[in-house]
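Appendix B, record 7
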Amino acid sequence: MAVVAFVVHPERPEAARAASDAEKWLEGRGHRTLRVPDSFGALSAGADAALDELADIDLAVSLGGDGTMLRTVTAASVKGVPVLGVNWGRLGYLTEIEPAGLQDALERFLAGQYEIEERMTLEVTLRRGPGAEELVYHALNEAVVEKTVPGHTVRVALSVAGRPFVTYAADGVLVSTPTGSTAYNLSARGPILSPHMRALVVTPVSPHMLFDRPLVLEPAQWIDLSVLEPRPAVAVVDGQSVAMLDPGHVLSCREGPVPARFVTFGRRDFHAILRARFGLADR
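Structure tokens (predicted):
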């Protein structure tokens, strides 16, 4: 007997109906199902209740767009649970199948006719100083230190593997995984990396300085983003604002201890996906 959890976008009634049909189909064949709300978004490693929802299941099915997929993977990857993405969004960079293929995909999963694709994640630690509790988050795409005051920059000191490197004056500084290189990093004119690589990408957002180039670093290194005077900033992890950062606070990013696990039915052609999403044509 398999246990399958469904994570459904709350504003996609057609996705909820598809999940209900899939649950009936599975239960009719002796399997157990679980419905987990998309709002659980367990970014923090301390969000035990949300993570425990996914502790003893064989598969998590995400029905929504890339945002729903991010939230599902964030919680599931900590428990080593594989995720199958069903695209009810616009881009579908992360999802594996379209809605019409859900039942066939479940049949193939139950028959063992699938592969697991592992992708690097980020472990993000917020340090507020001596005596303050450290908060730990997990991300698939990126972590960002961003400005809070319109029309003004934030000053962020970047250290690599414990060594000071540069201080940015910018709208923000982001650290992305290869998977996240086609998300916020792409809109900030950062490099596109194959999602099968392991690397950390540091990209300044609208920097007000001569040094404006992104950095691609080996995954064994870690990155500290320290907020400097005179303005505060906000920490954003996979698109969710998680904390206000005062001068002196540090957001530390390193490779996550557990990779994200995606269910696939044959290796995805990353370059074909890029061509399709951006309407690229031969010249």
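Remarks on this record: The chain has a mean pLDDT of 89. The first strand starts at residue 3 and ends at 8.
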